[in-house]
Design a protein that fits this description.
This protein is mainly alpha-helical and 67 residues long. It has 4 helices and no strands. Helix 2 packs antiparallel against helix 3. The longest helix is centred in the middle third of the chain and has 10 residues. The termini are far apart.
Length: 67
């Protein structure tokens, strides 16, 4: 669908279609974003996602033995 829209010169609409599933379509989406001059958005999509480590709280469970 996005290829048809872009082929018809409707790149903004192609981007809207691909943004719904950006993870699966990251390369195509980045290409269309670059064509629109949105290079920073394209780079953000293409950079690998680094999983966030959970922050440890100072809850009471830290002081209690695990059993």
């Amino acid at each position: 669908m996005a290829d048809l829209l872009a082929g018809d010169g409707r790149i903004e609409e192609a981007v809207a279609v691909l943004e719904r599933h950006a993870f699966q379509n990251s390369r195509d989406l980045a290409g269309y974003l670059i064509a629109l001059g949105r290079v920073q958005d394209a780079l953000a999509i293409l950079q690998p996602r680094i999983p966030q480590t959970p922050e440890l709280s100072n809850g009471p469970w830290h002081d209690d033995p695990p059993f």
